[in-house]
Structure formats: C-alpha cells, structure tokens
Amino acid sequence: MVIRTLQSDTDHPAPGHSEDTLPGLTDALALGLTAQEYELICEKQGGQAPNQVELAMYSLLWSEHCAYKHSKKLLRTLPTEGEHVVMGPGENAGAVDVGGGLVCAFKVESHNHPSAVEPFQGAATGVGGILRDIFAIGARPIAVLDSLRFGEIGNRRDDQRVRYLLDGAVAGIGHYGNSIGVPTIGGEVYFEGPYEHNCLVNAMALGLAPREQLIRSAAAGPGNVLILFGASTGRDGIGGASVLASAELGEGDDDKRPTVQVGDPFEEKKLLECSLELLQLGLIVSLQDLGAAGLTSSASEMASKGEVGIDIDIARVPLRESGMQPFEVMVSESQERMLCVVEPHNVEAVMALCEKWEVNGAAIGTVTDTQRMRVLDGGVLVGDMPVRALVDDCPLYDIHPQKPVDPVYPPPLATLAEGLDANATLLALLASSNIASRRPLFEQYDSIVQSRTVRRPEQADAAVLLLPDGSALGVSIDCNGRRVAADPRWGTVEAVLECAANLACVGAEPLGTTNNLNFGNPEKPHIAWQLTEAVRGLGEACRALDAPIVGGNVSLYNEGASGPIYPTPVIGMVGRLPDARRAGRLGFASEGDQIALVGPFAPDLQAGELHKLLGQQLPEGLAPIDIAAVRATQQAVRDAVRAGALSSGHDIAEGGLAVALAECCLAGGIGARIELGEDLLEANTTAFALLFGEGAGGFVLSGPAAAMEELSRQAPLQVLGVVGGAVLEISHARVARHSGVASTIHLTLAELRDAHGALAEYF
Amino acid sequence: MKFGILQFPGSCDEVDALNAAARVGDAELIWHRDRDLKGADAIVVPGGFSYGDYLRAGAIARFSPAMESVIEFAREGGLVLGICNGFQVLCEAHLLPGALLPNANLRFTFRQVQLEVLNSGGSFTRACALDERLSIPAKHCWGRYYADERTLQEMDASGQFVLRYAPGENFNGSLHDIAGVCNEQGNVFGMMPHAEHAVDDLTGGSADGLKIFQSMRMSVEGALAR
Hints:
Radius of gyration of chain B: 16 Å
Order of helices and strands of chain B: EHEEHEHEEEEHEEEHH
Largest sheet of chain B: 9 strands, mixed
CATH superfamily of chain B: Class I glutamine amidotransferase (GATase) domain
CATH architecture of chain B: 3-Layer(aba) Sandwich
Number of strands of chain A: 30
Low-confidence stretches of chain A: 1-20
Shape of chain A: globular
Strand order of the largest sheet of chain A: 8-10-7-11-9-12-13
Distance between the termini of chain A: 63 Å
Oligomer: heterodimer
Distance between the termini of chain B: 15 Å
Mean pLDDT of chain A: 92
Number of helices of chain B: 6
CATH class of chain B: Alpha Beta
CATH architecture of the largest domain in chain A: 2-Layer Sandwich
Strand content of chain B: 25-35%
Largest sheet of chain A: 7 strands, mixed
Number of domains of chain A: 3
Number of strands of chain B: 11
Helix content of chain B: 25-40%
Helix content of chain A: 25-40%
Number of helices of chain A: 26
Largest interface: A-B, 32 and 27 residues
C-alpha cells in the first residue's frame, strides 16, 4: 500500500500549499508549469494528481533551465563529433584528447539571474558550480575563465548599480577561484545598455585527467548504495531553477534574494580532493554533482542515464537546518555536494575517505531496478515517479522564428562628439569601457597557482597552460553581443572565428568548443529568430574549423520591461600547441622588427566600437565572411608562431587596426612607425574605416623582414611599418582627410597608457 | 637534503612548493594531522587558504598537530620557511614577530613584484647578493606587514628585515615596505611573495625564487659539515 503524506503546516509553509488537499493546477501554474504540462504530469502519474514532493520535482525538472524545452531541438543540429573528442555533450562536461594519455575536460555555464540579485555570491557559486562539473567527470580543475556583461558604465551616467554588480561579480569570482586554488587565467567583459537589467555571468572551467580516470554519471547496479557527500543541506536556493532561471526578472525581485545560493570554496576544496581520491582508488561506480534543482535533478539524471531506479530516504540526508520538509530536502540547492554510486563492499572505505577530508558522507539511498524515482522520509514513501517521465518525457517545444522588421534595440547612447581627429578618436576608444585595460579586474585573480600558466592575462591573445610533456593548451572565451544583434548568424560566426584567431596567435590549433547561449524570451518570434540564426552560425563555423561542440549551456528569458539582452552566444575554445616555449605574445618586442597586417581583413565601421561611441544605430546585417579564407590565414599565423618566426601576434578586434597597434605597443612597452600605403587606403571607403573599422580575419604581426616575406606566400600580407621608439605614429602615403579632419596618429606611450587605464577608477 | 612541505585542508600552493623544493633536494608532503616530520631538514609552510581563513588567516593551522611539531623543530633551530599563508601561520604561532593585516586597498591583488635583498648572510638568502633584486609573483589579500614601532626598531637592529619591496612595488601598504622577515635566531623566515612560483622563467616570470630554496640547502649542508 502506498502511503502519501500531505505537507503539514510548519514555520515554512511550502509554496502553493492547499490545506489538507493535494496541490492542484493553481499550484502547478505558480511553480512555472503550463496547464498542459500539468495534465501530462497527472497522466504520467497514472491518472493521479501529483503530491507536493512530486509536483515540486516535476516543476524543476520540467523547467526551461533543466529541460531545455525551447532549445533542445535546435541544439541537436550542432556538430559534436571529432577526432579529438573523448566525451561529448550530455555528461557534466565534455573532454578532448590532449596527448600523453591525458584529456582536457571543459565547459562553460551561466549564473545570470542569481548574479543580478546578489552579484558576489551569484558569481562565486557560478564558479563553484562549473568547477564541480569538471571534477564530477574525474578531472582536476586547472583553470577558470569568465565572461561578463553589464550595463553602460561612465561618469555621465547613473551607473551605480552597474558598478555594484561589476565590483561584486569580480570579487566573487576572485574569492572562489583564489580560495580553491584554481587560477583564473582569462575572460572578457562588455558594458552595453541592453544588459542593464539583465547582467550576464558566465564561467568556464578546464580540467586535466588521465583518460582512464574519466567517469560517467549513469547510476548502475541495482543494490548499489547512493552516497551524498560534501556540505550539509539547508534551504539555499529553494525554487531557484524554476523561479529564477525560467522567468523574466521584473519589479520586486528583492524577494528573490533568499533564492540565491551561498558558496564556500573551502568546503569545495575538500570535496574536490575527496572526489579525486575516491576516483584514484577506484571506489565509485558513478559520480554526479548537485547543481540546479539539487538532489532532484542529480539523482533523477543518474537514474535516467543508467535506465535504473533510485530510492532516496531524505531522513538520512545531513541537514544544517531543522524542520525541513521532504520537498525542501529534494530541491535544496545548497552548494558543494556530490552524489556517488558505490558497491556495498566499498561503502566503508568511502566513508573513511570522507572522514579524512572532513566532509559529510551519508548513505541516503539505493539503486533499484524499478525505473522509478522514489522519495522516502524515514522509510515512509512520500513521492513516487517514473524516472522516464521526470527526465526524458518533458515536452519539447518548437520556437517560431521571425526576422524583426523594426529594430529590436535602441541605438547606444552617444558619448563621443562627431568630428574628432584620429588622435582624439584613438584615445577615446582606448579609454572606452569595452576596450580599456582589464588589469584592475584580473589583478584580483590568482592566475598562476598550480604553476602551469605560461601566458597570463594581457601577455597574449589566449591564455596558455603548460602540459606535462612540454606542450601546452591555449584557451579563449569570446563574444561581441552587439555584433550578434546586428547579425545573429554572421555575428556568431565571428565570435567562433575570434576564439580560433586568439588561439592561432599563441600557436594553438582548436580541439573543441563549448558555448553558453544567453538570449531573451524564445517564445517571442524575434528572439526565436536570433537564437535560430545564432545556432546556425555556430554550427557553420565549428564545422568549418573542425572544432566540435563538446558541451555547453543555455540561459533564456534574459529580458525584462526594458527589453531583451543582446543575443550573446559566448564561445569558449580550447586548443593545443606542441611547444610551450614557443607560445606567442601580443606585445611588440624588438626595435627594427617589421609590422604587417595579415589576412582577408575588410574593415567596416558599422556595428563597431567607434559607431557605438558615436551613438549610431546597428546596421541591418553584417557582411558575409569567407570562412575558408579566414581559416587559411589562421593556419598560416599558427604555423609561423610555432616555427618561432614571429616576435608578436595579435588579432584585430574591437576598435580595429589602430587599437590593435596601440595594444601591441603598450604590451611591448615600445612604439611603432606605421605608414598606410596607397592600396590600403584605396581599398577602404575612408581612412577612418581603415583605422577603426572592424571585421573578422585580420592580424597585426611583428617580426624579422624575412619572416614576413615567407608568410606573405601563405596569406594576404601588407607591410605596415616598423617597431621602435616611444611613440605610436600612423601616417599616410598621401595626405588623407576624413571629412576635413586629420587622420594621422601621433601619440606617446604615456598618452596611450593613460587612456588605456580608464577602468582603474571603478576599483 | 630533505624538505617537508606542510599540507592543511585549504592549502593551495603546497604542490607548487613541493615541486620547487624537489628541484633542489628531496621533498615530501606532511599531512596536517601528522606529528611526524619525516626526517625533514627544513620545513616549508605553504600558501593558500588553510582552514578557509576562518577566524583569521592562519589562526587555526597553527594549532594543528603538524604545526606543534614544527614549533618544537623551530625552537631547536630547525629551518622553517613560511610563504604567504605560511607567513601568516608563523606569525599566529609566534615564531615570527608582527602580523599580516588586510591589504591597504582591501582587495586581493596579484602582481609580479621586484624585491630587494636586505640581508644576504642568513640561512634563506645566502645564495643571493646584498641589494640583489628578485622578481617574484605576489598574490594575497592579507599581506600588509605590521609590528609596533619598538618591535620594528629591534628587528631592524638585529638584521631581521630580509626582503623589501623595491620602490613603487609595495601594493599592500606593509610598514617599511617589508616583504619578508626572520626571527632573531635567523632560522625561521616568512615572506609574502611566492618564491615557490618563481622557479622557472616559463611559468614564474623568473627563476629568482629558486635562490631561497638553494640558500636553505646550502645552510643545511653547511651545518651538517660542521
């Protein structure tokens, strides 16, 4: 006989509680389910209304955040296979072979809504969560990168909230990463109007493991024991997944504050070491971390993958608060917890290891062959659901893309006067929030713990990590959301190419890609169009580069009363270079080196940083990109870096050629004398387009003349000038004027550095 | 010559210290619950966030069984090097005078810094020249060295100021730009910058940190020879 207990009144009445009756449709709607979904759930429960434990669990597992209802069909179109792929999408993280018997696990995830409510803990627990995903598959975390988006920042705006979010998020990332001993080696941050009310905090992590130590999460072996280890369970984040991640943020989101989780990196460090030692000793059958929706999602997904059932007795879960209801225990998002499946004869050894590392360890359930997820409270059955229904049978929805007729976003606020000369324009760009030096941020991160870091932030276009055999990993994370807004397909292609270009500059060849799709409400046709086109561009570019997707994350409903965020498909890419000592650098190095512009660079001012500062509206589309030509140039640059032929390499991105040249001078502490030749000027509409226009495929390289000569046979190459002095000077073969304004540049390193240091005032 | 590297729950740079020491001699990790120092000739208390920096950085680590053995070892003249969190632990254990306070800017800061060697005759710097500059990465939140005026005068008179941030390099506000100090006997030394990272140009920004470990080896071997 099945006994169903009702939730009795306590200090913490459950959401949607109805006195002495089962929860009904109203409660289901309040938890974020639709009427049709509720009906389907009743069907799955054998024609009976689910009780509170069951309804809470369905509402979380059938939320957008857990089930990917609106994106799964699209994601299935992405390329996920390749010669280096060892673990593809579907597990806690993906992994690629990096030689020497080792694999590199990596993934990016978002923690957007919690960070908008409480930036320090939101960002910190975002880092904690992604790290757990890495060691959940058996890899030791070796690096973190972060990708952040906030509203506009600057002295003429009311930007207190942005400054608060920026400060909190950076501090939170630093706090968690530094304390747990994983270096934060790179990242990016953009400040744009559409992120004002919906900030983005995406965290990427990498890990290293011997191939045979990789473990999957499928629960197996009826009769095996389910052990929960790590921190104790409290009321953190209850309802987080369904309440926050699947809904737009609106007025009164102060009352969402209790739903943000609180992280403890010290607990996670102990948990990490315990997990890795358990794996090294071969004591566990499978491993899963607890993230969004806590025990509910972890246990259910383990059971689903293994096609088994699981019984959990919540009375055995170590709690940190008294009087917790069964559903609270099942949906708690308390951090720093893992689940493992253990054969009965190993349970004692597992408990002993938990004791050594001073983490809680408790046998809370068993694997069964019932294929049902059963929740008990001290032996009394309080919830009983088919695993398939919970995890696999959630309905998937088509989205209905429609290209918008009217602009979706208002033009950016103008902060630069028209008619400034090239000198003033370059200084304004260097000081602008999307380009200025990120040193005040990354100096808050330990980027060298574990002694693998060969290239630190601002030393090269990609971070570089040493591998035991002397080769190295190159890593980059990129996305310009404003350019994706201008053209979701080509803007996304550009983001993928940007990552690969950064890798090329250090000599790395792409092995695999991860992505976090941050978008607005996909039920709106223009957002559906953005998402569909972006996924199209993502697939196209990853296929062309042989850099398959090994895993990722989707964050939807990032919009509010003021409108949606820019479509922001954040791309993370990992590559390998054979000799760490030959890793490329971004700064000019030697007096007398030639400087060259390399690649099929076709600069356009539209959708670029200069047009943003001038308050120009986005264009309707970007020019198509010849992906094959860009790829060929990336290969040529990569080969030249590997051969040790070049002194420096930097890809051209925000702010265009002049900004890239300035960045190379600043990183190298040396000037340059550039003369823009006739053919370059003729190929461009104006001198300003050549100096500040943006687009994929361009690199600024420096090195001996012979090396440039050699490279010119592999890729389009124009010699621009020579390294030397303490000034950046850009002149023209003939006097060129841009609507009557001087387009030559003559700035000292000190002037460049001064402008470039603009973000320091915010910290 | 054998280095013993302590390992607490929350230590981060102990493996880096182990690998640095292993370039100079034998090196082994010592678990915080063990009292046995495994015949180490010198002890390294590493960087990180032992015990989550609960209460105060280093406050709990100093009570661990391993640290109790280290305190005895130090009292008997054994060489003890504390780096960053290790320096904090040694101050908490009263093996070194003074304390490490929050950085002046109240933020964790990571920078490669230039240090000046003020005292090159001691056990930890004899491989360095006087006034030599060392390029070492520093990364901490609580690194501002403080001692009262009288203590500072005594330390100065006894040659206990060993390393100093070069002009313009002191980002944490340490009094007298102090980056590293030793005790009166000269056998216990604490420094905030991470010597264990600067042992390889490729990843450490320099190999200057190796000199600290080499100095310790020279001291141990010199003492054994006598």
